[in-house]
Amino acid sequence: MKKLRPTIRNTIFNYWPIFFIFTVWFLFASPYFIKGLTPFPSSYQVNFFSPWSSYTELAGPVKNNAMPDVIGQIYPWKHFTVETYKIGQIPLWNPYSFAGTPHLANYQSAVFSPFNLLFFILPFIDAWSVLILLGPLLAGLFMFLFTRSIGASREGSLISSISFMFCGFITTWLSYGTLSYAILYLPFSLFAIEKFYQTTKIRYLILLSITIPLSFFSGHFQISLYFFTTVLGYTIFKFAVKRNLSVFLFCISAILIGLLFSFPQILPSIEAYLYSLRSSIFQKTEVIPWEYLPTLIAPDFFGNPVTRNDWFGHYAEWNAYIGLIPFFLALYAFTYIKKSQIFFLFFCGIFSLFFAFETPFLNLLVDSRIPVLSTSALSRIVAVYCFSFAALSAIGYGLFINDLRSKKLKNILILFSFFILVILSLWLVIIFKLFIPFDKIVIARQNLIFPSLIFILFSAGILFLTFIRSKKIQKIFVLAIIIIISIDLLRFSAKWQPADPRKLVFTDVHISNELRKISGYSRVLSNFGGEANIFYGLPSLEGYDAVYLKRYGEFIASISDGTLKNSARSVVNFPKDTVNTYNSMNLLGVKYVVHKISDTNKPWTFPIWKYEKSLDLKYDDGKFQIFENKLALPRTFIVGLYSVIQDDKEIINAIFNKNFNISKKIVLEKDPVVMQQATISAKADILNYSPNKVVISTKSDKDAILFLSDSYHSGWRGYVDGNEEEVLRANYSFRAIVVPKGEHLVEFKYEPDSFRYGIYASTAGFLSLLVIILMLKKKKYLF
Q1: Which of 8, 131, 363, 381 is 20 to 30 Å from the Cα of 445, by its Cα?
Q2: Which residues sit opposite 592 in a β-bridge?
Q3: Residue 146 in contact with residue 126, Cβ under 8 Å?
Q4: Measured between alpha carbons, how far is residue 710 from residues 102, 106, 319, 344, 551 in Å?
Q5: pLDDT value at position 13?
Q6: Long-range contacts of 404-413 (CB under 8 A, 24+ apart)
Q7: Strand, coil or helix: 490
Q8: Side-chain half-sphere CA neighbours of 621 within 13 A
């Protein structure tokens, strides 16, 4: 036992920062582990999203109403992903939005995230909670590994870890489980590069290649591009410093292999992007104004959505806070800018800010029309700033403490004077009511008190350290500073992160069972969003997604007056009351209409009162009614007549012509070489309908054309009795296939070439990695 005790003490001494990281993380995650609350905005959901919001007994206080996409997109997409895996299919296609849309390719679905395995082990809400809460912990551990690998002290590495795990970018995007994960692997990648340079062990090369797909599979292409660019830049930087060509080439090879591993996600996403409206929109969005700079010191200077007093800016998109003291230490590292490591990190941080704020660099990026980067929220590049300056804080801490101990006070006094000047300037702005609206002065004042207090405590501690020579007391004060940093960032992150009752997360309400009864392949028209349509499996004509099919959006937009129109940027709303609305509903097989009773006579809802003879009431609970549409066409039917038109405007004009019989004729863009038949006896029945496959039995007395009112995509393949036949684009944005007379089995399968080529590329990457491992083993490189 006597021999074990020193070992335990040494272990605790050596790894106390890791224990500290886990402790701070546990405090952050304690609402889940101790109180059973979940990091999901369920109170927001039941208060503001249908159908839950109609059942007032669920209502309660809402903490954070600034993350609607978690409810309307990310959570239901994750639910659909897991449920599709459970039926033995890769979730490539989502039939519940936009009359069908790519799912894997929309990227934020994170279909290949390894954390999806959690949902096969734990109950869904627990798997979700663990997924969200693990983000800061992984970010902190990875940052600790990286900063230690570049020579930072334990204390400095701990400061940078806490700074990164609760930085503004990770905090505000944490509940999505996508953007935060896409960036948190960055220090892990750089750690692998550092360790391979130091040891040339194969394990670090393998680790480097794995971190690339881990980011690209996390669910946000834009952030992964920033991640990849930084990793590539760091590799080039290391070569410039070390001049070791063989190690550089191996690192580059590992990075490219990692990119190949990511191709099953990247190639379909590029294809989806090119098919979407987003690919043609190049404009400045979410640019941070220079007036927002005070938030680097006082994150809530302009208010906070949680306290409902934010009055300037976009808090979630523009948040770059890394902690007041870590920010100070990062700037202190700048005084040693000639050190190569500091130069690289500082350059990355400042460079990213130049593209986040209104600068000529940002205008150049937009004008260059670079796909994804020039069409997305530009401010999100602050993710790289948060990483870079958090890492700099580790280096800055070491330099600061060394200068303090050796009485080199010039740079320290200059930087302290600068911070004092900035904070005093902000107080003067408040006291003399300058630049800030009079009614917002109180908000700015209250939110500047805590940062000012932190800086006063930090200054007092440093002043005390200057005169104290006892190393034990110095260590205590350093620990106190770390605790102050932790309190600052825990307060900041916990304030934003919801911790809501798990029982409210997509809870069942009175209409839930009825919605499940009408789920399947029969279309449903409602004012629900994806939170209900996708979660309950209701095929909808509407949707919300950045990369939905542009052509489908144009078709829906054209319903309003029958002329070709562009669709909205990310949303497709079905016109509820136009001259073409009802015929379009019937053409697209809308069998059920869900009506919110309180919306009666409102302009945004479908006017059921105008179609009483065509609608049968099937359900009424006093809040919602469900009607069956008696005139809806089947989801799939056979026609003998068609027109071949290639001009987009003429196609739309033809479809919405009053004389066009939607049940007897379709418009094609390619001649099917089938004799047209004015009269035909035919029948089509859907035998199986799943995300990636639709099986239909057909019976016809003549050669004809089978129409399916699902969105057309080049990735859909058609098979008649097992023989491949061309899938034709019909009625501007839907599917059709030629069927011979007689009885046949028709299959539509979603088999996009982009995904197949991605699998080939990933396989090539795996084989390449094996070759490199064998090469290194022959040269006696160690694992």
Answers
A1: 381
A2: 524, 628
A3: no
A4: 12, 18, 40, 51, 13
A5: 64
A6: 404/462, 404/465, 404/466, 409/466, 411/332, 411/335, 412/332, 412/462
A7: helix
A8: 15
**Number of other residues whose CB lies within 10 A of the CB of residue 477:** 16
Instruction: Name the 3-class secondary structure at 486.
Output: helix
Query: What's the 3-state SS for 144-211?
Result: HHHHHHCCCCHHHHHHHHHHHHCCHHHHHHHHHCCHHHHHHCHHHHHHHHHHHHHHCCHHHHHHHHHH
Model confidence at 361, pLDDT cuts 50, 70, 90, reads low
Q: Name the E strands within 79-131.
A: 93-94, 101-102
Question: What is the spatial distance between Cα 274 and Cα 278, in angstroms, rounded to a whole number?
Answer: 8
Pairing verdict, β 723-725 and 716-720: antiparallel
DSSP state of 640: S
What are 522's two structure tokens? 């029969």
CA 191 – CA 762 distance, rounded (Å):
24
Q: Which amino acid is at 441?
A: I
d(CA 167, CA 161): 10
The CA distance from 708 to 636, in Å, is: 4
Distance CA 83, CA 86 (A): 5
CA distances from 564 to 378, 554, 650, 654 (A): 31, 7, 9, 11
DSSP-assigned beta bridge partners for residue 616:
628
For 500, the 3-state DSSP assignment is strand
DSSP secondary structure letter of residue 338: T
What is the arrangement of strands in the sheet containing 734-739, beginning at the earlier edge strand? Answer: 636-639, 704-711, 734-739, 728-730, 665-668, 641-644
Is residue 135 within 8 Å of residue 170, measured between CB atoms? yes
Between CA 105 and CA 111, with CA 109 as vertex, the angle to 5 degrees is 80
CA angle 677, 680, 682 (to 5 degrees): 135
Cis peptide upstream of residue 501 (ω within 30 degrees of 0): no
Q: Is the dihedral of CA 71, 77, 79, 80 positive or negative?
A: positive
Residue pair 710/100 in contact by the 8 Å Cβ criterion: yes
Q: According to the model, what pLDDT value does residue 367 have? A: 58
Backbone angles phi, psi at 69, to 5 degrees: -70, -25
Strand partners, 745: 697
What gap in Å lies between CA 235 and CA 305, rounded to an integer? Answer: 39
Average of per-residue pLDDT across 544-551: 93
Q: List, in order, residues 6 or more apart from 412 with CB less than 8 Å away.
A: 332, 400, 403, 404, 462
Does residue 4 register a pLDDT over 60? no
Count Cβ neighbours within 10 Å for each residue of 622-659 and write b for 16 or more, e otherwise: ebbbbbbbeebbbbbbbbbebeebeeeeebbbbbbeee
H/E stretch holding 583 reads: helix 581-587
Give the pLDDT score at 57: 75
Which among 307, 350, 329, 346 has a CA at the least distance from the CA of 492? 307
Contact 466, 406 (CB under 8 A): no
In the three-class reduction of DSSP (H, G, I as helix; E, B as strand; rest coil), residue 323 is classed as: coil
Lowest mean pLDDT among 32-36, 230-234, 344-348, 563-567: 563-567
pLDDT digits (tens, 9 = 90+) for 61-82: 888 889 999 999 999 999 999 9
Q: Name the DSSP class of 74.
A: I
Cα R_g (the chain), whole angstroms = 29
The answer to whether residues 635 and 706 touch, using CB atoms and an 8 Å cutoff, is no
d(CA 253, CA 261): 12
Q: How far is CA 405 from CA 46, 329, 400, 411, in A?
A: 56, 16, 9, 13
Cis peptide before 575 (omega within 30 of 0): no
Identity of the amino acid at 559: I
